[in-house]
Amino acid sequence: MRENKSERIRIKDIAIKAGVSVGTVDRVIHGRSGVSESSKKKVEEILKQMNYQPNMYASALASNKKYNLACLLPIHTQEDYWIDIEAGMEHAVSTYKDFNIRLNIMYYDQYESGAFAEAGKKMLESNPDGVIMAPSSEDETKSTTLQLQERNIPFIFIDSNIRSLNPLSFYGQSSHSSGYFAARILSLMAEHNEPVVIFRLIYGGRLGSNQQRNREEGFREYIKNNCPGIKLYELDFYVKNPENNERIMEEFFAKHPEINCGITFNSKAYIIGEYMQKINRKGFKLMGYDLLRRNVKCLKAGTIDFIIAQQPTEQGQSCIECLFEHLILKKEVKPYNYMPITLISRENIDFYLDAHVRTNNI
Amino acid sequence: MRENKSERIRIKDIAIKAGVSVGTVDRVIHGRSGVSESSKKKVEEILKQMNYQPNMYASALASNKKYNLACLLPIHTQEDYWIDIEAGMEHAVSTYKDFNIRLNIMYYDQYESGAFAEAGKKMLESNPDGVIMAPSSEDETKSTTLQLQERNIPFIFIDSNIRSLNPLSFYGQSSHSSGYFAARILSLMAEHNEPVVIFRLIYGGRLGSNQQRNREEGFREYIKNNCPGIKLYELDFYVKNPENNERIMEEFFAKHPEINCGITFNSKAYIIGEYMQKINRKGFKLMGYDLLRRNVKCLKAGTIDFIIAQQPTEQGQSCIECLFEHLILKKEVKPYNYMPITLISRENIDFYLDAHVRTNNI
DNA sequence: AATCAATTCGTGTGCGCACACAAAGGTACA
DNA sequence: TGTACCTTTGTGTGCGCACACGAATTGATT
């Protein structure tokens, strides 16, 4: 009597106990019509009583449904952060391959107004079952999310969040908190309240990203509260004129030879690190963000002291998992998922590369 | 023609292409006997050519196999680290519930010689398909792992590793590296090369764990290489006489009022943190290990500055996933899995609690 | 040529579920 | 009472796979 093995409860078990057929139970479970009130009540009661948990694998096997996921990211060429996010998503998709999940990644130009909405339109035409996107500004993003909501298509924000647009979930890092934390570490490095320079990336007269701004805000808040004696300078680079970077640094450090400590709130700390190596200046204390290959190289060379990582691979993976759980397992998902704020130096970097896993001998 | 949909390849597809029946393909895939050399070659060829990937969910559904996993841990009462490991394992088991995986956790007294082997014997009697264990000393552990190897039962080490016993895989943290990293951070806090005290836990005249010893070694190595000017003191507590802890600290700090910086390489930093709070001494710089509730409380209160975490929940989860992939998916698994060495302060602690996920408003 | 055993292979059934279809029951009206 | 129609319910089939069983083929032996 395999019925008695105290194993998992099947639809059949429910049907027997309720005195109906499996078809009726199936109809109740899926909320389909054609069930009398009395049968419905009885089945629902027994479902709850026996705490029925469907075998999602058998279910997926039988239904043979296909899921199309769409993803909308800013155009990136060679940017490790987004590459890692994509890799994480692809990896998760491949682990769910038997559920017939397909992922279609599309891009928009984050610096061109209207580009997001246009890409969003194309994305909608692909008729996705779920969407992941790195939002643009609220105004740019809104038209797309409204259409998604109309069509009842769940969407997730990655990287940065716009609460008012009500995504199913958010995956990313709290920029403000990470800046706050960075300040704690930097203030330890800045002995005797020595001055600190903030290196910034400017695009079109403004900071290149919201993240950059939020991190700087968090940073300044910590400094103001805990070590107001530290004087903060700013040094701006221009995205459109990278050829000027070296000259900008030259001029700045000629004017401020006393400054020996700096931080970037974008991912391009290697600009400074590589410069320091080039002019052979040692001991400049530098912090930055993201494990770009060039940043890691500087970290190992000693020209960057600390990096704060966002774990992009995990972010990408988690987004797919989230849609999987929502669409297929029909589980509740958490609305906010803030990645840990991890501090990385040359002493622990090895344990963060290769997705937290090492295969060689330590 | 659903055959042409460029979908996943099924056994049936292989059978048609090889001009045999699904039964024969099945026999080849599972290496069962009763297949002629010619058929075998043909099928194997086409399997490779079409890159056949079985649908593991359908496979599990059809085979209806049960898997018993066993786990052997040191006895712990109220120790958050082990509790979190168990929680991680249970969580992973529940996500694989449809694969008929059961987990049986058993315990041994890590301080009693012979206890591990005895518990190992009991564990073997439960006839497990896979094993996870926190090893004791090499000698104590060896008899059990030898029997496992004889019976071809895969086993994973968690927390600490004994390479010579050849586990299928290892999950844990590199103790030495984490001590090395801790030293980098502590040396930033110890201004002007001020002295540092190492708080230690002694059991039966020796350090209470290998981890503690390895971390301290890594720590001392960094200090020696990078800031030999820092003088290191030791202060020993005795596991068996916790009532003496306060007196021990009193005497020590009476003798060394100049010491304002300390570190523990065990998980009990709260002993010092709570003492500092009790005597209302502020500004003592303290580092420790593991996110025990009492440690977190001290962290938030400001009596512990930094904690290095081992992510026990993830460790537990990963162990189960590893056995799952090995036993059921028959994938290759990585032999060494070192968890990231994460630095935690009151500024980023919120993003590490609750398994990296927050649901409230930040 | 007949018998038997061993080898090699194909078919059928079921895993738990989704869904199409058919059957049964009920109601209204002629 | 019969017919048409709607509501409610049960049954059958297939998803991709594992495995038991039995059929076909071959070779050896009498």
Q: For the largest interface in this structure, which chains are involved and how many residues does each contribute?
A: A-B, 47 and 47 residues
Low-pLDDT runs of chain A? 1-6, 355-362
Order of helices and strands of chain A: HHHHEHEHEHEEHEEHEHEHEHEHEEH
The total beta strand count of chain A reads 13
- CA-based gyration radius of chain A: 26 Å
The helicity of chain A comes to 40-55%
Question: How many DSSP H or I helices of chain A?
Answer: 14
Summed up:
2 copies of one chain form a homodimer. Chain A is an alpha/beta fold and 362 residues long.
Explain the overall architecture.
2 copies of one chain form a homodimer. Chain A has 362 residues and is α/β, with parallel strands linked by helices. Chain A is 44% helix and 18% strand. Chain A is built from 14 helices and 13 strands. In chain A, strands 6, 7, 8, 9, 10, 11 and 13 form a 7-stranded mixed β-sheet that branches. A 6-stranded parallel β-sheet of chain A has the order 2-1-3-4-5-12, sandwiched between helices. In chain A, a hairpin with a 2-residue loop joins β6 and β7. The longest helix of chain A has 17 residues. The radius of gyration of chain A is 26 Å and the shape is elongated. Chain A starts with 10 loop residues before the first helix and ends in a 6-residue tail after the last helix. Chains A and B meet through α4, α8 and β12 of A and α4, α8 and β12 of B. The first copy, chain A, binds a DNA duplex (30 and 30 nucleotides) through α2 and α4.
